[in-house]
Request: fold
Amino acid sequence: MPRICIPQKSGVFLFYCIFLSLIGGINISVAQQNLRTHSLISGKKEVKIQAITQDHSHSMWIGTESGLVSYNGISRKLFLQKDGLAENAVTALFLSPDSTLWIGHSNGRITLHKNDKFSPFGLTGKERITSIISDSEKNIWIGTYGSGAFKYDGKNLVKYNTDNGLGDDYVYTLAEATPGNIWMGTDAGITIVNEK
Reply:
């Protein structure tokens, strides 16, 4: 599998941007008038937000270290392990084309949410789920922090790791650049899986 590393020339670009803004009189300002802070979980001073997605009814789903929060713009609801989650710590969220919410956890497990019900997914890893996406063929791709990545075609799980060409087993992010080309961001750069 080919591997591509991104060059480290961003410092030069940043220098030119700052230089041009200083001599060109470009006004860089911070927009503060449209910012609001929401309190997601009552009784908690700090809640670490790890993932956010929106469903087809425009409700927001927020993954935190302390559970999964749904927010419809008026009210919010906290879901925990006792409600059906594989673990309280949610590290990745993805809404698939069939309206299934894929919920990745820090213990390497995945919970599915469909039709107001939670159910476990058959991945039994131990490393944190970092990213979940769908490709143009409706396969689900799952990135992990130490076990590589997985492709789920609706029936089978295929594992991608350093044993079969992945640059590194720590996969932080996934994206489909063009149909059949899955980009995986790892500690060793970018690995591209060509499925075509």
Remarks:
- The radius of gyration is 19 Å.
- Helices lie at 10-24.
- Residues 1-8 have pLDDT under 50 and may be disordered.
- Residues 65 and 122 are 22 Å apart (CA to CA).
